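ok new one. same drill as before - structure tokens go in, u give me an amino acid for every spot. 319 of them this time. try not to just spam alanines like last time pls lmao
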């Protein structure tokens, strides 16, 4: 239904009846403006620091989808674009965030009925015993239908070392639905680059159903600093000059340790620094606390981390 509404919108945006438009130039820019997709792209730009290559790809995809819609409204049919995607990259890179914006774009352009992203992992799809996986996977797919299904760490569905693994059943069903109901469900498979490449190599049928591969390359320390600053600003905090230096040093060390999760680790580190700051402030006895005190993260709030004291992350479970 949303498809019809959009086509009507597009035709009215173009300002002509379909029959009359065959040789009439089309104001694509106006059509793009009226789709309000730019607002979503802008929001993505604000939400996520860096990731220029990812943002460019999303923009290109949006352009393709818009042009496809305009062409279709003029009777220029082509195969429907393959909308299933894969997001390759380490944890905390913004993959889930991008998936949510992508769903909004697909919805605005009338490719899906609802802009929901259903987030699942292997455990949501695969059962423990014989006969459990198919109904489990089907139920998830039914609930996701009309929107986007994001399978996180999708490579875990394939366990070649365990030939009887039920993950294969989930893969089979997923592939069928990706083929047969491609006009009503967009599947995004996310996960570590290497593991996902191995997954696609072993499951070529899956690979051939994917229209867009997007790589999320790890953030540099400079990028992570910008992410930290933007998180702080949004929370009405800032680093003192020494704290900024300490945090940079923290990132350099933390990045080299296990379970580093990019922007998510930055967010967690800032949460812990806030905790230490609060305790430090409560221990000030000789004076009253100022507004600036309440806003400032000092070097001490960073340097108390186990990363500096013991050379290990504060929270081993962080992923
Ligand atoms: N480039 C970025 N700039 C600012 N915040 C980011 C960036 N990338 C990720 N984040 C934040 O990090 C957290 C994890 O992001 P998420 O989209 O869940 O990553 P992933 O799905 O790759 O693990 C979220 O709070 C998100 O807002
Ligand atoms: Mg995620």
């Amino acid at each position: 239904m949303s498809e019809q509404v959009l086509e009507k919108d597009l035709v009215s945006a173009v300002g002509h009846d379909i029959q009359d438009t065959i040789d009439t130039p089309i104001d694509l820019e106006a059509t793009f403006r009226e789709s309000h997709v730019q607002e979503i792209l802008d929001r993505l730009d604000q939400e996520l620091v860096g990731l220029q290559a990812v943002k460019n790809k999303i923009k290109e995809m949006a352009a393709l989808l818009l042009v496809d819609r305009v062409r279709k409204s003029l009777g220029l049919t082509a195969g429907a674009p393959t909308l299933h995607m894969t997001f390759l990259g380490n944890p905390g890179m913004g993959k889930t965030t991008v998936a949510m914006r992508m769903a909004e774009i697909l919805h605005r352009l009338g490719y899906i009925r609802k802009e929901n992203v259903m987030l699942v992992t292997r455990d949501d799809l695969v059962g423990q015993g014989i006969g459990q996986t198919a109904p489990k996977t089907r139920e998830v797919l039914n609930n996701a239908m009309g929107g986007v299904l994001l399978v996180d760490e999708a490579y875990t569905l394939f366990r070649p070392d365990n030939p009887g693994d039920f993950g294969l059943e989930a893969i089979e069903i997923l592939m069928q639905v990706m083929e047969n109901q491609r006009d009503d469900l967009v599947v995004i498979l996310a996960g570590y680059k290497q593991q996902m490449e191995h997954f696609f190599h072993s499951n070529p049928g899956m690979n051939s159903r994917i229209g867009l591969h997007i790589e999320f390359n790890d953030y540099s320390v400079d990028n992570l600093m910008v992410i930290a600053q933007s998180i702080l600003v949004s929370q009405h905090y800032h680093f003192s000059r020494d704290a900024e230096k300490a945090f940079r040093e923290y990132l350099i060390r933390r990045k080299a340790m296990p379970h580093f999760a990019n922007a998510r680790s930055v967010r967690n580190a800032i949460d812990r620094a806030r905790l230490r700051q609060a305790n430090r402030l409560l221990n000030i006895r000789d004076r009253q606390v100022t507004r600036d005190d309440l806003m400032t993260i000092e070097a001490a709030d960073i340097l108390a981390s186990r990363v500096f004291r013991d050379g290990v992350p504060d929270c081993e479970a962080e992923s």
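The longest strand covers residues 186-191. and btw The first helix runs from residue 2 to 14.
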